[in-house]
Write the structure tokens for this entry.
Amino acid sequence: MLFSKGCTYAIRAALLVAVKETREGRKFIPIRELADELDLSFHFLTKILQVLTEAEIMESFRGPNGGIGLAREANKISLIQIISAVDGMSLFSECALGLPDCGEAKPCPLHQSWSKRREELKRMFEKTTLATLAQDFSKNSFRN
Amino acid sequence: MLFSKGCTYAIRAALLVAVKETREGRKFIPIRELADELDLSFHFLTKILQVLTEAEIMESFRGPNGGIGLAREANKISLIQIISAVDGMSLFSECALGLPDCGEAKPCPLHQSWSKRREELKRMFEKTTLATLAQDFSKNSFRN
DNA sequence: CGGTATTAAGAGTCTCTTGTCTTAATATAT
DNA sequence: ATATATTAAGACAAGAGACTCTTAATACCG
Ligand code: SF4
Ligand code: SF4
């Protein structure tokens, strides 16, 4: 799997928040509501979203009418920011084969091709924002 | 991580076998020898290589002068065959975001870009064979 | 035949990821 | 103040992946 479960959950939840914020004009969405609609464990999702608030991608508010919201506009939050916060960036720097002692200095025949594709993937996640995804994601695309 | 540990070990071991076969003209290489040179657990490597022999990518022979060897020429064994045998092909068919209910029929803005890169990656591993890699891999590139 | 080298098979262990549960902290409303 | 809604934090449990160990099967050699 390319990303951890937590990472894909984080992306789905952030996307739902983006959709709900614009569609319903609310500032904070309770995590329980997100978990219900995404059919995910509330507690697990809570923990993952704590990582996003820690990374200042989202912000949270406790108490009644509290919940979680985007820390900035949806078009300022790229997928790479979420991926980086949850899974780290090693996917985009490590080798697919995990070999040591090699790399730029002593590349195998795969190296150029691999690092190019890795870079393309990275750029794809950099330029895709929550706004990009939210624009045509209908509500029932979220459930498992 | 893109691949499981077992998968990268399988690739390294198969590559070492390819190198040793051509360089030293031996037909079977003992797994112990591979494990030592790659600094991997003998028993674990044994189990992984069993998957490759099961998949008819390698063939094994027991007893003295036994070991493991490629089941066909190194240029007939592509990385995708090894990857498919050990980790399966789900990486190349599943979505990066793991969303359901979507795909070709109802693609998100990521879909086209993602499936294109996924396809390129797959083609890269299809056309890269053990022979491709073996041609310029020096012996000390194998260790961790 | 008996000893040794080697892979095959499978049970067992350790560790990391994923998920659950409980308690604490904070905010609101009455 | 007290009750309630909500996130924060952390202990705990279940599962999967990674690794270890033991025993069996097979092949060779003397
Ligand atoms: S040279 Fe090959 S094995 Fe080494 S890091 Fe590059 S792609 Fe990976
Ligand atoms: S439409 Fe988007 S989320 Fe769905 S499978 Fe394609 S890339 Fe993944």
Observations:
- The interface with chain A takes residues 1-3, 5, 8, 11-12, 79, 90-91, 94, 96-102, 106, 108-110, 113-114, 117, 120-121, 124, 128, 132-133, 135-138, 140-144 of chain B (CB under 8 Å).
- Residues 4-6, 41-44, 47, 61-66 of chain B lie near DNA strand D (CB under 10 Å from a C1').
- The CA atoms of residues 6 and 48 of chain B lie 6 Å apart.
- Helices of chain B lie at 5-24, 31-38, 42-54, 79-87, 111-127, 130-134.
